[in-house]
Structure formats: structure tokens, C-alpha cells
């Protein structure tokens, strides 16, 4: 797919040696140990992200779930260089972007793009649809005639005639399509979607999700799909990372994380997701956690989830659990594809106990080849 | 709870409404009742000023007619004559020209410099904002007329210098008016979006920030024009603006002090011209205010 | 319009268990506390009045939660505002009635209306931050409404302490002296619910009160409201766009489309056998665990309606896969079909076409 696309477009600036060599094993995104703290007057230092590492292979979809303050939007801003990490590195297609200078940064903008949550707020109210798209093309020296603008609009399922409209003259769904078209204008390889359907009406969400599925097939894009809605993430992602208070607490194949979560927080999240099914036993849903997310300016010691955790023990209060692989078997005896990692003392110990009892630890940790999402650091500190 | 979202969310707009949306700014001002009155009266004043400037008036504005001193309005002297027998109608026309000339130049200077300072302060924040805001505070600390007086004293008289003096007074106002909206626009998602898209900074400021903060600036321009006319009049009244025998509205009001007791027309007509100009420009500002909101454009 | 209402609507608990979590306590049933009949509300615009509500029928019994779902422009928020008498300037009720225990509120003058609101109808809004006064202590905000309804200072204080405890807030006494910014989002929303419930109203209208909250907090608050509904015997009208919330909290659901109720069903039957093609389409468009991973979702397609330019006939006809000639000529009334009422000419067993097709990603014409 990608090859076809490349030949069809205007000559491209070579992005990096790795890319030019077509190194297929270079991941689309490689984030290593990023830290992002904000100084907030009256609150202290807000720990938005603490030592987060994540890899996304090309053509895959990484879903990120978590509640407000978990750092998922901060991660989106780091990936698109709206912000720089205080520590750690961010690589996109093998090129470091966290310390890129102006020139390389411009080229980097053409590899990774962002779709915002609120399509209306992210469009200049005084710019017509066509002008908004043409401007992006102009800025990057791409052909920007009305034909190309019409093509972009059609690519996201909008009629070319909409080019004459202002954003306020579009419906919610049309605006988000435009937001996607604008991100696609530079022909990026990676699309970061920050809650792309949360602000939309229910019936429009399906349209946008279907558009994303199409774009993935047509363009072979890599996606980072951020949402608080586990249902949507489950539907679209290949891998799911669950974040809590600036940390990844669980990451693994979509079906493993969403359907058989291991971390108590993921379980709570799963239980709290309001599934539109009144026949579901309400009592099950009540296993959710108590309390609210603590202030990120004063994260709890040890495991950050321990004050709300039903499984918390002494070790959780003092020692921060590392994000390490766990052996997972499904109920039907099969193994999910890809590595499943977890940051939880208690669940990990239970696994160890079970494995010991079964006398087959080696088998239990066996994994299928080439995990699509890997976590860079083996040990958290 | 506003009723707006329901209507904006509604869909679809007929495929081609460009004819209506393409209409020029002036046409949109014209559709506003206040704007239309402001536009007509301002246009009329400009016409009179131009006539005065090119000398297309019945009498020479500085020619003295010693026999016709303090004549009331008549067919010969429409607005009467002053204590030197000069034609007040011609002097009002020339006075409007003088006042407008000074007002336009001063406001132009103030708008460009003030808005540039304000937008930079609001967009970059940090030390830029600190420096600009303190500078603006210092200028604001002086009474406006005192500041203008100081500048004129330093530069000397002459209409350009008067304009510069008034510009100094209004620059901080424009800085302040443009800084506030820039603070919020700079935080808007669509500005962040431009950064992600790699749009160069000057272009972001020129194409995305400026248009979105232009409405309060444009409205401020019309208000400042009317104030500038008053300030020019005040300076002339104090003898530091337009110098006799040239005519200016403020100077005429000043000269009329001694004669108004028995010749009402010497004060009335120049004062009326000031009032009309100020009101017309304010109405025009109102019209611009509503015309500049893109959400007011037809949507169905 | 008023003859379209469904007289033979079943009570909330005639068969089947209650849907919500704390449904163990038997809830009082009986006559509807709140009855809305043929409610019409219009907004004045430059091009004449625009009808937002075009005849809404609804009733809520003691101890019952009725969810009102719909998308932007469906009129769900206007329904809440019309019932509470809080319409924004430029909007007026132009027809129909809002009966609170048989008394019509629509013709009441504003000062009478104000007495009813608060004392008998409590209201909770979506945004807990903007609904609370940032410079007023929590205690004052809760007692203020009570004082306005004639409570003595001491009684109001006692009641405030009591109700803050009832909504699940810890140490109410200390909380009374705090300011809104010192509370978390979930706690603020609980304070708002306490404010609404302090005068012991009969009806609680909740306009998307949990939308801005995190899912784990949302879940806790839904549980609290269900408990309070049972304790107070409240009639709850819950406005939302989230079908997950509906499934958790509602006994019955009114699905709104283009300013009218398209379907009014018991919650379980809405999800199992929707009676209106629109509700059917909405439900099918949600990704469920059963839906194939990364496959296309069935979408309703077509453009949302434009209230200022409604076609004759059924407003959903243009987007409806079951459309027949009749639909574009006559607007169907809301008719009773046993467990549900629907404004559709065709009951589900007469639907010929696939409820909603998986179409391309392009927007419908």
C-alpha cells in the first residue's frame, strides 16, 4: 500500500536514513522513558508522565485508555511535538523528534499528525474549509490546487463543494472529517487521534470509526487512538495501553487487555464502562473501585493505584511495581498474540504461585513471535 | 444554556451559498442599521473634508472680511462669520479635514504599533508580555492630555507632530485591546493545530491570530478616531494643535469662547461637527462589531 | 397532538426486575408525578419562530427513572428546560402542558413557577464547576435555596448537613465551610445533587450530569442517584446521549428525534427489540463485544435533520431504511404497542429491509 502511495505523490524529502533504507523493522513510534512534569502554581509539580515507554510497529493501532489526568493527552502532545519531554526520547520512524531543530521538525510534521477531540475548536473559525486545507499544502510546498483540496475532502467522505463553507456551517461529523482531512493533507505515516469521537453524536461516531477503518486499509497508516471509552478502543486497536496517573499500568493485545484484564484498575475501568446492555448483571459492575483519582501533583507512593485498589498490600504502598511481561492463557487455553505486560505486585505474585503449582513456568511465559507493542524499559525505577 | 448550538449543529447548508458569504465587509456593515447611518454620515463628512481641502468652498477659509464680522447665518455665509469676518462654513469644512487628517494618521500609527505590541505580548507571554505590559502601564499612568502636551512640547507644533502625540496616547489602548483576545486565541485548539501542522510562526500570527483578534481592534479604531478628533480639538483649544490662522474644529471652538455670548453660531457649528463626527464613527464601530462576526453570516 | 399519548403504558415494574443496581428495595409505583402532554417549545429567530419541541409526551411515576436520549438538536435539553421553566430568553412554550401531580405549570406566572422549581422540581446540570458559585462556601450554596423557600436558618443548616451526607459526601460539617475549587469533580457533582435534593423535591431533572466525569466516578454517582431515587421516591428525568447510562439507570427510555419522542420503551425492551428504526440504528451503531474486531460498524448515514427545514411526513424518513411512500407524506403519531410506544407507521415485524446497512465510509447523500 505504502509503495503505491509514494509513487503517486510529489517527490518527498528524504526523512531519515532508516526510512530511506526502508527498514521495515524500525517501529513507527518508539517512546523511551519519557517524563513530563508541569509546575503548577499553588499545586506544586504535576507528574503528567513518569517514565513511560511504548513502541508501535508500522501499520498497527495502539489504543490508549485512561481517565482524566492519566497523561494520555500529554503523551499525544509529546508525540506531535506540541511539547517536549523533560527526560527520555521520542522517535518517529527512527528519527528523534524530541530534540529536532526547526528544519527537521518541519519534515517531521509530515510524518506524524494529530486529530483533535473537538473538531470545531481545532478549526480556525475565519478560514473556509478549502483555504484551511490549501494552507497546509502550501506550507509544506505540496501542490495545493482546488483539485487536490477536493481530493482530500473526498478521501474523508466529504463533497468537494464544502470547500466554500466556514467551519460553523458544517455538522459535527463533517467538522471531524475535515479535521482528519487536514491531518492527512501532508500524507503522514502516523496519525495520533486524541478522543476523536468523544465530542460527537452517537450516530456520527460509527461514521468516523468506519472512516478510520477505511483509511487504515487504504493508506496503511499507523494509529495512536486515545480515548476514555474502552469500548471504542477495543473495537479499533490492535494493542491497548492502560494509563493511570502518568504511568502505563497494563499493556497488551486488545482482546487480552479489554476482555481479560489483569490489573485491578483495568478491571475497574472495564466494570465501569457503561455497556449499553441492561441485561448485564449490575452486581458485577459494582466491583468498581472507590474514591477518585488523586492529585497528580502528589502521586501516592509505591503503586500509584494503591489507595483505591481492592488488592492493595503493604508492598504496594512502598514499592513501585515495574511493567513486566506476564504469562497469559485464555480461558479456552489459547494464548493471545503479543506480549502482555503488567505493573502490579499482587497479580504478578499470584501468577508466580500458579505457575509454580503447575510446574511449567517456561511454558507459561512463552510468547508468539514479533510482539507488535513492546515496552522499552524492562525495569521501572 | 444557549440556544445557539442547536441551530449551528443543524445541517446541511445548501451546497452553494458563496454569493451571500462572499459579501464584502462594507456590504455587511450596510445591512446593520447603526452601521448604515454611521457609514452615510462618515462618508458625508469625508466628502465635506475633501471639498474643504481642495478649496471647493464658497469662501476662502482664512480670508478676513472686516465688514462682515460676526454675521449670522445667511445665504452668503451659510454658517455665519467669526470675529474676523471669516466664513465659518468654509472653516468648518477645512476644520473637518484638519481633524480627520490628524485623527486618521494618529490612529493608524497607534493601531499598527499598539496591536503589534499587544499581539506579541499575548502570544509569546513570558518576558515579552512583562515588558510590553509594564510599558503600557507607564503610558497609562499619565493623563492622556498631559502626555500629548509633553510630546507636542518636545516635537513642536504641526499637524504631523500632533498626530504623533495623539498616537502615543492611543498606542497603549490598542496594545491592551489586542493583548486580551490574543491570550485566549493563542490558547485555542486551532492555533495548536497550526503548530502540529508545521505552519511557520509569522504566518500563524498573521493568518490565524490577527484575523481572530481583529474584531475588537477594528471597533477600537472607530472609537479611537472619534476620541482623536476630540483630543486634537483639545490640543488646538490649548493652543498646541493646529496653529492660527489655519482652521481646526478645536481651534474654532476655542476662538468662539469670546464671541459665543452674542454670536451663537461661532460655537454651534464647529461643536456640532465634532459631535456628529464622533457619533457617526461610534455608530460605524457598532456596525463593524456585528459585521465582523463570521457566525453572523447566512447559514441557510 | 395530545390524543397521541399512550394511555395503556405499563407501569415500571409490572414484570421483570428493575434495571438499576440498587433495585432491591421495592419502589413505590402509582400515578405519574410528572405528566408532559403535547409540549411545544419554539425559539424566536430572525426568520420567525423555530419549533424545537413539536409535541413531546412523557410521564414519570414516583420512584421511577425515565431517560430522555437524543442527539444534538433532538430537543432533549429543551424538554428538561421546558419542564423546569428555565427556558433561555427568546424561547417559549407555545403549547401543551406540564402537569405536576395534576397541576399544569405552563400557565403559572414566573414567581409561582420559581416556588415550584427547587421546592418540587430539582435540577442538576452537566458542568459542576460552572453551576457552583466559585466564591461561595458549599454550606451557603446548599442552604441558600432552602432559605429562598422559607426555611429557617437553623432548619436549613440541619437539612444541608443531612443531605450532604445522603449524597455520599464524607464529613459534611467540614465540607460546608469549603469552596468549590477545593473539591474534586465528582464531589462537586454530588454537591449539586445535594442542592437539588435539599428541599425534598418530587421530581429531579438531571441534564447530562455525569457526562463530564470519569467513568469510575460516573458509575459511583449513578449508583448514588438510584439509591436516593428509592429513598425519596423521586421521579427522575435523566437527559443523556449515552446509551450506556440509560442501560444502567433508567426504567423507561424516551428516544427523541427532531423535537418529538420517537420511541418510549421499557429499558430492556428498547435494547432487545427497538420499535423505531432510529433507535434500532443507534443501538446497532455501537461497537459491542460481539461485533467483529475492526470491522465496519453499521451506521445510520444521511444528514442530521435541520429543524428550520423539516420535510413533510416523518422527520427520520430521509435516513430510514424502512421508508415507504406514506412516511414522506404523513408524520406518524406515537402509538402504543404493548411494552413500548413508537412514532413509526410500521412495527418491527413489518420491516422489510436490513435494519441498518454497513455502508461505505462516505457520508450519505
From TrEMBL, chain A:
It comes from the Bacteria. Residues 355-372 have a biased composition (Low complexity). It catalyses: glutathione(out) + ATP + H2O = glutathione(in) + ADP + phosphate + H(+). Residues 1-22, 355-381 are annotated as: Disordered. Keywords: ATP-binding, Cell inner membrane, Cell membrane, Hydrolase, Membrane, Nucleotide-binding, Repeat, Translocase, Transport. SUPFAM superfamilies: P-loop containing nucleoside triphosphate hydrolases (SSF52540). It comes from Yinghuangia aomiensis. Belongs to the ABC transporter superfamily. Glutathione importer (TC 3.A.1.5.11) family. NCBIfam families: oligo_HPY. This is Glutathione import ATP-binding protein GsiA. GO terms for molecular function: ATP binding. Its main location: membrane. The keyword Cell membrane applies.
UniProtKB/TrEMBL annotation, chain B:
It is found in: Cell membrane. InterPro entries: BP-dependent_transpt_permease, MetI-like, MetI-like_sf. Gene3D superfamilies: MetI-like. Pfam families: BPD_transp_1. Residues 96-285 form the ABC transmembrane type-1 domain. Keywords: Cell membrane, Membrane, Transmembrane, Transmembrane helix, Transport. CDD domains: TM_PBP2. Its main location: membrane. It is a multi-pass membrane protein. The chain crosses the membrane at residues 37-57, 102-124, 131-152, 158-175, 209-230, 263-285. PANTHER family: D,D-DIPEPTIDE TRANSPORT SYSTEM PERMEASE PROTEIN DDPC-RELATED, OLIGOPEPTIDE TRANSPORT SYSTEM PERMEASE PROTEIN APPC. Belongs to the binding-protein-dependent transport system permease family. This is ABC transporter permease.
UniProtKB/TrEMBL annotation, chain C:
It is a peripheral membrane protein. Its main location: membrane. The keyword Nucleotide-binding applies. CDD domains: ABC_NikE_OppD_transporters. It is found in: Cell membrane. It comes from the Bacteria. Coiled coil: none annotated. Residues 1-33 are annotated as: Disordered. SMART domains: AAA. The keyword ATP-binding applies. Keywords: ATP-binding, Cell membrane, Membrane, Nucleotide-binding, Transport. Residues 34-283 form the ABC transporter domain. GO terms for molecular function: ATP binding. InterPro entries: AAA+_ATPase, ABC_Ni/Peptide_Import, ABC_transporter-like_ATP-bd, ABC_transporter-like_CS, Oligopep_ABC_C, P-loop_NTPase. PANTHER family: DIPEPTIDE TRANSPORT ATP-BINDING PROTEIN DPPD, OLIGOPEPTIDE TRANSPORT ATP-BINDING PROTEIN APPD. Belongs to the ABC transporter superfamily. This is ABC transporter ATP-binding protein. It comes from Yinghuangia aomiensis.
Amino acid at each position: 500500500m505504502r509503495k503505491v502511495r509514494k509513487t503517486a505523490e510529489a517527490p518527498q524529502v528524504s526523512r531519515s536514513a532508516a526510512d530511506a533504507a526502508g527498514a521495515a523493522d524500525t517501529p513507527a513510534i518508539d517512546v523511551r522513558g519519557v517524563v513530563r512534569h508541569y509546575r503548577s502554581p499553588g499545586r506544586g509539580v504535576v507528574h503528567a508522565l513518569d517514565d513511560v515507554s511504548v513502541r508501535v510497529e508500522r501499520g498497527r493501532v495502539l489504543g490508549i485508555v485512561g481517565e482524566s489526568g492519566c497523561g494520555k493527552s500529554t503523551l499525544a502532545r509529546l508525540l506531535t511535538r506540541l511539547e517536549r519531554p523533560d527526560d527520555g526520547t521520542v522517535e518517529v520512524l527512527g528519527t528523534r523528534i524530541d530534540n529536532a531543530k526547526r528544519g527537521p521538525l518541519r519534515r517531521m510534521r509530515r510524518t506524524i499528525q494529530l486529530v483533535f477531540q473537538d473538531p470545531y475548536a481545532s478549526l480556525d473559525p475565519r478560514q473556509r474549509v478549502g483555504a484551511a486545507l490549501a494552507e497546509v499544502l502550501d506550507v509544506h510546498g505540496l501542490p495545493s490546487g482546488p483539485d487536490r483540496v477536493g481530493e482530500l475532502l473526498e478521501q474523508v467522505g466529504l463533497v468537494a463543494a464544502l470547500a466554500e463553507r466556514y467551519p460553523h456551517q458544517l455538522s459535527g461529523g463533517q467538522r471531524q472529517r475535515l479535521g482528519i482531512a487536514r491531518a492527512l493533507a501532508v500524507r503522514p505515516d502516523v496519525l495520533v487521534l486524541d478522543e476523536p469521537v468523544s465530542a460527537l453524536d452517537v450516530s456520527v461516531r460509527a461514521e468516523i470509526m468506519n472512516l478510520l477503518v477505511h483509511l487504515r486499509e487504504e493508506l496503511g497508516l499507523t494509529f495512536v487512538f486515545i480515548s476514555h471509552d474502552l469500548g471504542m478502543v477495543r473495537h479499533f486497536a490492535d494493542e491497548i495501553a492502560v494509563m493511570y496517573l502518568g504511568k502505563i499500568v497494563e499493556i497488551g493485545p486488545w482482546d487480552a487487555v479489554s476482555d481479560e484484564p489483569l490489573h485491578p484498575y483495568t478491571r475497574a475501568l472495564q466494570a465501569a464502562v457503561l455497556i449499553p446492555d441492561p441485561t448485564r448483571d449490575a452486581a458485577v459492575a459494582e466491583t468498581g473501585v472507590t474514591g477518585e483519582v488523586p492529585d497528580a501533583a502528589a502521586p501516592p507512593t509505591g503503586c500509584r493505584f494503591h489507595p483505591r485498589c481492592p488488592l492493595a498490600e503493604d508492598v504496594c504502598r512502598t514499592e513501585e511495581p515495574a511493567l513486566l511481561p506476564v504469562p497469559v492463557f485464555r480461558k479456552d487455553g489459547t494464548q493471545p498474540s503479543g506480549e502482555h505486560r503488567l505493573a502490579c505486585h499482587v497479580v504478578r505474585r499470584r501468577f508466580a504461585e500458579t505457575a509454580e503449582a503447575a510446574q511449567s513456568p517456561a511454558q507459561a511465559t512463552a510468547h508468539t513471535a514479533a510482539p507488535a507493542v513492546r515496552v522499552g524499559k524492562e525495569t521501572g525505577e | 444554556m444557549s440556544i445557539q448550538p442547536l441551530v449551528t449543529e443543524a445541517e446541511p447548508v445548501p451546497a452553494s451559498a458563496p454569493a451571500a458569504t462572499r459579501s464584502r465587509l462594507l456590504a455587511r456593515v450596510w445591512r446593520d442599521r447603526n452601521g448604515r447611518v454611521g457609514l452615510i454620515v462618515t462618508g458625508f463628512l469625508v466628502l465635506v473634508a475633501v471639498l474643504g481641502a481642495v478649496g471647493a468652498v464658497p469662501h476662502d477659509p482664512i480670508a478676513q472680511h472686516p465688514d462682515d464680522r460676526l454675521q449670522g447665518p445667511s445665504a452668503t455665509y451659510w454658517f455665519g462669520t467669526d470675529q474676523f469676518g471669516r466664513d465659518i462654513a468654509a472653516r468648518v469644512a477645512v476644520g473637518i479635514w484638519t481633524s480627520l487628517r490628524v485623527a486618521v494618521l494618529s490612529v493608524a500609527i497607534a493601531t499598527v504599533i499598539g496591536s503589534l505590541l499587544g499581539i506579541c505580548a499575548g502570544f509569546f507571554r513570558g518576558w515579552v508580555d512583562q515588558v510590553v505590559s509594564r510599558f503600557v502601564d507607564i503610558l497609562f499612568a499619565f493623563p492622556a492630555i498631559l502626555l500629548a502636551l509633553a510630546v507636542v512640547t518636545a516635537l513642536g507644533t504641526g499637524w504631523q507632530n500632533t498626530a504623533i502625540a495623539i498616537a502615543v496616547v492611543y498606542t497603549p489602548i490598542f496594545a491592551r485591546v489586542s493583548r486580551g483576545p490574543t491570550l485566549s486565541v493563542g490558547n485555542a485548539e486551532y492555533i495548536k493545530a497550526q503548530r502540529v501542522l508545521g505552519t511557520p510562526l509569522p504566518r500563524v500570527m498573521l493568518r490565524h491570530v490577527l484575523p481572530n483578534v481583529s474584531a475588537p481592534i477594528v471597533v477600537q479604531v472607530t472609537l479611537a478616531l472619534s476620541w482623536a478628533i476630540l483630543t486634537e480639538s483639545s490640543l488646538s483649544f490649548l493652543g498646541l494643535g493646529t496653529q492660527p490662522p489655519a482652521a481646526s474644529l478645536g481651534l474654532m471652538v476655542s476662538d468662539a469662547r469670546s464671541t459665543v455670548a452674542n454670536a451663537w453660531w461661532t460655537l454651534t457649528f464647529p461643536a456640532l461637527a465634532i459631535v456628529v463626527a464622533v457619533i457617526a464613527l461610534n455608530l460605524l464601530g457598532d456596525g463593524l462589531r456585528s459585521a465582523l462576526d463570521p457566525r453572523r453570516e447566512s447559514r441557510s | 397532538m395530545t390524543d397521541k399519548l399512550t394511555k395503556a403504558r405499563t407501569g415500571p415494574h409490572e414484570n421483570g426486575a428493575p434495571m438499576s443496581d440498587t433495585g432491591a428495595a421495592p419502589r413505590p409505583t402509582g400515578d405519574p408525578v410528572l405528566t408532559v402532554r403535547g409540549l411545544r417549545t419554539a425559539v424566536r429567530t430572525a426568520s420567525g419562530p423555530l419549533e424545537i419541541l413539536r409535541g413531546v409526551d412523557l410521564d414519570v411515576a414516583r420512584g421511577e427513572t425515565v431517560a430522555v436520549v437524543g442527539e444534538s438538536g433532538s430537543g432533549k435539553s429543551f424538554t428538561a428546560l421546558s419542564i423546569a421553566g428555565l427556558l433561555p430568553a427568546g424561547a417559549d412554550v407555545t403549547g401543551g402542558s406540564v402537569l405536576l401531580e395534576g397541576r399544569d405549570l405552563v400557565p403559572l406566572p414566573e414567581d409561582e413557577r420559581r416556588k415550584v422549581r427547587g421546592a418540587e422540581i430539582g435540577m442538576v446540570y452537566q458542568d459542576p464547576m460552572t453551576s457552583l458559585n466559585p466564591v461561595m462556601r458549599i454550606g451557603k450554596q446548599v442552604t441558600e435555596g432552602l432559605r429562598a423557600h422559607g426555611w429557617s436558618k437553623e432548619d436549613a443548616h440541619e437539612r444541608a448537613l443531612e443531605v450532604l451526607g445522603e449524597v455520599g459526601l464524607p464529613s459534611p460539617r467540614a465540607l460546608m465551610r469549603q469552596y468549590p475549587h477545593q473539591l474534586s469533580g465528582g464531589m462537586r457533582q454530588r454537591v449539586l445533587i445535594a442542592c437539588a435534593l435539599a428541599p425534598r423535591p418530587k421530581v429531579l431533572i438531571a441534564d447530562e450530569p455525569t457526562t463530564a466525569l470519569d467513568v469510575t466516578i460516573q458509575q459511583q454517582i449513578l449508583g448514588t442517584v438510584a439509591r436516593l431515587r428509592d429513598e425519596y421516591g423521586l421521579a427522575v428525568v435523566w437527559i443523556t446521549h449515552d446509551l450506556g447510562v440509560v442501560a444502567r439507570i433508567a426504567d423507561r427510555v424516551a428516544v427523541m428525534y427532531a423535537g418529538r419522542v420517537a420511541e418510549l420503551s421499557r429499558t430492556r425492551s428498547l435494547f432487545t427489540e427497538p420499535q423505531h428504526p432510529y433507535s434500532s440504528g443507534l443501538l446497532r451503531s455501537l461497537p459491542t463485544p460481539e461485533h467483529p474486531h475492526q470491522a465496519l460498524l453499521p451506521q445510520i448515514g444521511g444528514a442530521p435533520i435541520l429543524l428550520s427545514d423539516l420535510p413533510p411526513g416523518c422527520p427520520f424518513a430521509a435516513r430510514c431504511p424502512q421508508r415507504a411512500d406514506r412516511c414522506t407524506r404523513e408524520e406518524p403519531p406515537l402509538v402504543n404497542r404493548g411494552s413500548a410506544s413508537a412514532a413509526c407507521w410500521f412495527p418491527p415485524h413489518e420491516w422489510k429491509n436490513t435494519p441498518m446497512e454497513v455502508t461505505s465510509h462516505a457520508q450519505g447523500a
